[in-house]
Structures are given as structure tokens and as C-alpha cells.
Amino acid sequence: MKRKLTTAICVAGMMVSIAACGGGEDKSSDTGADTKELTVWLTVDAQNNWPELVKAADTAIEKKHPGIKITHEYYGWPDKNAKLDAVLATDKAPDVVEMGNTEMLAYMVKGAFAPLDQAKFDNSDAWLDGLKASVTYEGKTYGVPYYAGGRVANWRKDVFAAAGVKSPPKTYDELTAALDKVQKKRGDKFSAWYQPTRDWYAAMSFVYDAGGSIAVESGGKWKASLSSPESIKGLNEFKNVVDTYMHGDKTKDESDRYIVYGQGKSGMIFAPAWEGATAAAKENDKTGKLEGNVENFVMPGPSGKNLPVFLGGSDLAVPVKSDAQTVAAEWINAFTGPAGQKGLMEKGNLPNNKTDLATLKDDPATAVPATAAESNWFVPMAPGWGQVEKAQILQKMLQSIGTGKQSVEDAAKEADAAIDKVINNE
Amino acid sequence: MSAADTTAPAKVPPARPAPPPTPPAVTSSPTRRLAGGAAVPWALLAPCLLILAVVLGYPLVRLATLSFQEFGQSQLWGFKPAESVGFDNFAKVLGDSEFWAVVVRTIVFAAACVVFTMVIGMAIALLLQRVSGWVKTLINIALVASWGMPIIVATTVFKWLFDSDYGIFNALLSKLPGVDMIGHNWFASGPEGLAVITLLVVWGAVPFVVITLSAGLTQVPKELEEAARLDGAGAWGVFRYVTLPILKPIIVMLTTLSVIWDMGVFPQVFVMRNGHPEAEFQLLTTYSYDKAFVVNDYAQGSAIALLTVLLLLGVIGVYMRQMLKIGEVE
């Protein structure tokens, strides 16, 4: 009896371990094989914030190609590329993919995207320089700029007014003085400035403001420079902000910032220009106090100038393995053309071209993001930069700094070593 | 082992029926039946073996070849041929001090999980013997329910239990006089975070151990326990000198299985850390995933996975030996 039982356990154990070994990456089942079907991968930004623009582009293409079936898949930024890598290994690649402008280079270098005819896209002669550079490799165009985004400060007028601050701060000293007042008045369960620790776009703004940088190029080779004295100074400024004004979970990133802000737990954020409005939208404004009370302003920096902001943005590319490349390009043009740009600007984004950008500064509603974007920084255009982002080296460094686990110097040194390992890899 | 067992008897009989002069029809029929009998088990096993070869064999072969090649995104997408680099990947992995830190962490973590699982499992199994019928049923239902909960769901629940802002665990702890844990972040430090993950793993593993051990406990002869008691053994003595030796094969089996499972913990850490475990949370599984899919060095990821397999081979050896020993006795 006993022996039988033990044997049964062995078998049961083996079965469970086999079952446990199973599972893994599920293969994508999209079939964008012929031109009757088009698969478009966008990030959740489009799904959450401007779905009507996607629909408008679909409608335009459906009119031109009756009977075409357009499938959309939406991805979060963190897991998108792992999925894309897996699908590009098969012959069922999507036809259009949205890429962050910092992610393009690694894929262009390896030949993952099909070259596009720049002349076929509206406004292509006036694309923003930074975005144009991000889609160009060895003189060929491999993508189409979609939009750009600067970052601005967004504050709650009611919270600051209650602490005696009536107009947006113009200098960094004014800003910290105002934040101190709010922090003192609201106690330490409230974040005068909700600044997620892992938000490297904000942290690096302080680094560049202090004259530092993530990495420097010399003789075609890149070398990380987060532990240079200037960079350390900027990181210390950032740590100061997190220590003094941020009273939330110090291991979080910026993905739910608008939700936290909408819950009324904070007086100010430093975020992409649309986030303040998103937090104040009905579904996110849990206290009912944000609507009509939030306002964007240009972020002053500790150096005395405006804080340089990360000029992020998205590009759209056509994978070289897509077999609907012509229609894919048409869809991209319908999406990023003049109508699309107008819609994106209304949401607080910067357009992909200089002509539209010029009009933004004259309009009081959009003048702030357009002005803030004038002072900007961009990631090192190094072949291995994509790996630095995917391995979340900067985020991990910032978390160590923010939680106090490592000193700024140690964390920066460790991050430099990690970056140096991958930044020159193709 | 099964091949030797089944073919041996088939070859013996033909020698025996030869001396007595019996009609040929009778002698030939058992021979034919037995000859066919040797192939039948294999025929029945074939579909299963085929599936195993495809599902387990192919990935294993691929894993082994990958670890001796240079294999990144370009090779994955077929733009570049995969070139063999010999032991380069292994040299790189073994020369990295981070790898050794991960190995040590994995072993400590797995050991803690196994010890807690076995001790708690044994305690509950013994308890089950002494409670009344309906309590036993209730405990069993609770055990099966927690066993049946998908890992991802369980992990998400634990994540919320230990959330720094809204977690019920912090709120409960703070009810104790003099304790203020509101806003305490369990995942800000590696050891604390791994302790929470250990709790989650043990919570998920205990039911199987309890159910198996209680089944084993029913096989312990009552007479032996009684005799021990007559000889003056206390509760501990009975457990130590009667129950434990009889349960030993089951315990060895459960322990080796637990080691294999706990060395392979992945989703608990991965989901708990939002898909990006910090350096202090990396176990061999997540480390290999990171290398393969985050930095896109599939070859080095494979090398780490292969090294993990080698490390586990010792444990698997114990398990196989125990299994074969049971087979022999049978």
C-alpha cells in the first residue's frame, strides 16, 4: 500500500512539474498576411487619449480600400518591445508599429524596418529636426514622426492659493518656497509635488540642467557619465525633490501618476502636457476638486533657466516583414497627416512639424508646452541605447537613490558601469 | 528500466516448452502472443513519448545549441546567421560576480521555501489527524482552494495585501500598540521583499504537502504506535521513531520535488516586481529571463538556464534514485 502511494506521488509530482514547466510566451495570432488585412500596433496612449484619431485614419483607409479589415493592438510601453522582438522572428509581423523615438535606432541598425519614401508623407519637409533624426539611418527614412511631447509642470490652483500662492512660480526658488508652504499646510500624507522616483525623464532633466549628461561620445564610442560631478549635482537636486515633497511609494514609476493626482493626493506634477487635463477628467478626478483648478506652467530649473525637458515622441514604422507595406504607409499618412496633427495638438502634444509648432506659441492654450519644449534634451543616440532603456538601468538607479538604499555617488557609479556594458552594442 | 523488465520474460518461455511433446499449435500461440506483447507497451507509449520529445526534447536541444552560439535580435529575426562561439557564453556568465550573487540568493531562497513548506505542511498534516471530521473537511477545502488558485491571481492578491499605501497587512500590524507600519514599503529592500515572496510560495506549496502527508499518515500502522506508547514513548518519541521512519520515502520525495519547484520560482517574483525585478530580487530564473529577453542576449540567457539545470541535476538525481528504488521493491 505504502509503496503504491509513494509511486503515485512520484507520478503526480512529475505531472505537476511538467505542467509547471509548460506555458510561456504565447504566440501572437494576428494574420496581416494579405492587403485585405492591416494590423496596427499602437501604445495605450492612443487608446486612452485620442481613439477618435485612430478611427478617423481607419475610415480614410477603408474608403480607399473597401473591405479591408484593420486590426488594432495596444501595448503598454514596458512590454511592447519584448513582444515585438518575438513577433518579428515569425512571418506574421504587424504592418504598422509605434516606436518611441529613443527606441528606433536599435531596430534600424539591425534592418528590422522597411525603408519608406519620405515624399509620400504630408509635412515631411518640415518634420521637427529631433524627430527626423530619430527616423533616419544612413540617409534613408525608416519611420514617420507621429508626435512629440514636452513636459510641463501642472499645479492645482486651489491648493496653492490656500497656502497663499496666487500665481505660478517663475524661478526655482519661488517654486520651492511655494511647495514648502503647501507641504507644511497639508502634512506629510500629502505630496506637495508628486514626483515618482523612477521617472527618469524628470530626473535626467535635473542632470542636464546642472550641465551633466547620461553619456558622452568620443571617437565613435559612448561612455556613461552619470557619475560626473555635474550629473551628481543634478541627481542630488532630484533626490531633494523626492525626499522633501514626495510622500508616496518610492518604488513606483510614473505610469499611474495622473491617477494619484486625480485622487487629490498631490498639489503639483511635472509630466507630459496632457496629464494634468487627464487627471482632471471626470473618470480620474475622484475628489471633484481638480476640474477647472489645474494649470500648466513652464518648469523653472535650479540653474536659473527653464528646466530642460525630455523631447520624447513617437514614430511609426513598417516592419520589413510586413506584406502590406504600401497600405501600411497609407494608413500612417492618414493618421499623421494635418487632421491627425490638429487632434494631437488639441490634446496638449507637440506636432511632428515646424509649421504647426509655430502656430502653437501664439495660442495661450498651447503656449506653455511649446515654450517648455524650446529647452530640451535627448537621449544618447548610441546603438545600445535601447538596451539601457529595456534593462531599466536609470530607473533602478533612481529607486536606489530615492529609497536611500545607496548614496547618489554609489548608485550613479553602478549605473555607469551597467550602461557602459551595453551602450556600444549593436 | 521498463524495456528490460518487459522483454526478459518474453524470451524465457520458448526454452521451456521444448522438452514435452505437445502439439505445435499450442506452443506457437503463446510465443506469438508474447512477442507481440513486447511491442504493445511501446506502441501505447509512443504518442506520449512523441509529445514529450517535441514539448520537452526540442526546447532542450535548442537551449543547449543556443548557449554555444552568438544569438541576439539580428539572429532571431534571421538577418544574420547564428555563429558558434564555443564556451564564450559560459565563460562570460561564470566570470560575472552578479551571477554568483544570484546563485547564492536562489539557493538561500529555495532552501527557506522548502524548509518552511515541509515543517508547516507536516504540522498541519499531524493536526488534521487529531481534529473532528467537519473541521478536517473545512481545512481540506481551504487547502484545496489555495492550491487551486492560479499563481498570477495569488501573486496579485499578495501584492495588494502588502501594498505600502492600501495594504491590509500594514493596517493590521499598525493596530498593535506601538507599531506604525502605515506607508511601510516591503519591497524597498530585497530581503524583506523576498520574505514576502517566500510567504507566497510557501502558502501555495503547503496544500500539496499536507494532503500527501495526511495520506501517508493513514498508512502508519496503529499497532506500532500503540506498542511504542506501551514501551513508554511520548508523543515526540512516537513521531520520531515510528511515524518519521515510515514516512521517510514520502518526505524525501516531497522535499526533492519542492527543491525543484522552488528553484524554478518565476511568476511570483516577476509579477510582484511588475516585470522588472530589481537586482536584489533576481533569482536564477528571472536573471536568465532578463539576459535573454530584456537585453536580447538569448545565448547568454540560455547559458544561465543550462547552468541552472546542471545545478538542479543533483537534486533530480536524488529524486530519480528514490523513484527507481521504489520500482525495484515493487
Automatic annotation (TrEMBL), chain A:
Residues 1-19 form the signal peptide. It comes from the Bacteria. InterPro entries: SBP (IPR006059). The keyword Lipid metabolism does not apply. Belongs to the bacterial solute-binding protein 1 family. PANTHER family: MALTOSE-BINDING PERIPLASMIC PROTEIN (PTHR30061), MALTOSE_MALTODEXTRIN-BINDING PERIPLASMIC PROTEIN (PTHR30061:SF50). This is Extracellular solute-binding protein.
Automatic annotation (TrEMBL), chain B:
Residues 103-319 form the ABC transmembrane type-1 domain. PROSITE patterns: ABC_TM1. It is found in: Cell membrane. Residues 1-30 are annotated as: Disordered. It is a multi-pass membrane protein. Keywords: Cell membrane, Membrane, Transmembrane, Transmembrane helix, Transport. Gene3D superfamilies: MetI-like (1.10.3720.10). Residues 1-10 have a biased composition (Low complexity). The chain crosses the membrane at residues 39-61, 99-128, 140-162, 194-217, 238-261, 298-320. Residues 11-24 have a biased composition (Pro residues). Belongs to the binding-protein-dependent transport system permease family. This is Sugar ABC transporter permease.
